[in-house]
Specification:
With about 120 residues, this protein is mainly α. The protein folds into two domains: about 60 residues, no CATH class; about 35 residues, no CATH class. It is built from four helices and no strands. The protein is globular and about 40 Å long. The chain starts with about 25 loop residues before the first helix and ends with a helix. About 0% of the residues are buried.
Length: about 120
């Protein structure tokens, strides 16, 4: 005989209406926006340790892969919106760290950009 707990269903989580297709893409996108909002809020409150280094590395790696896949698929988009509150210094620090992580120099980035037109 099975337990009554086994037959309980989870309550449906309300979803925001978006222009994306329904399903896991919308849920994942909503979760990502909520996570980004929480991270921004914690940073604004001075909580610099809100993410472990491993969690931060996982997020940056996944974001980098997702962005590159979108661009390679022909989508013309910037990594963040024009009205983003990301500062030029934050972009430079992150870009430098990304290049260092894969042992590339700014010169190599410039050459790649001239070859690909990106």
């Amino acid at each position: 005989m099975s337990s009554p707990e086994k037959h309980k269903t989870k309550a449906a989580r309300p979803r925001r209406v978006t222009s994306e297709p329904k399903g896991s893409t919308t849920v994942l996108s909503d979760d990502a926006v909520r996570l980004a909002t929480t991270i921004e809020r914690d940073l604004s409150a001075g909580k610099l340790d809100a993410l472990t280094p491993q969690a931060l590395q996982a997020l940056i790696g996944a974001g980098c892969k997702a962005y590159a896949a979108q661009v390679e698929a022909g989508r013309d988009l910037l990594p963040f919106g024009q009205r983003s509150n990301v500062s030029p210094t934050e972009v430079m620090v992150t870009a430098s760290g990304l290049l260092r992580a894969v042992n590339l120099a700014v010169f190599e980035l410039g050459m790649w950009q001239s070859w690909t037109g990106r």
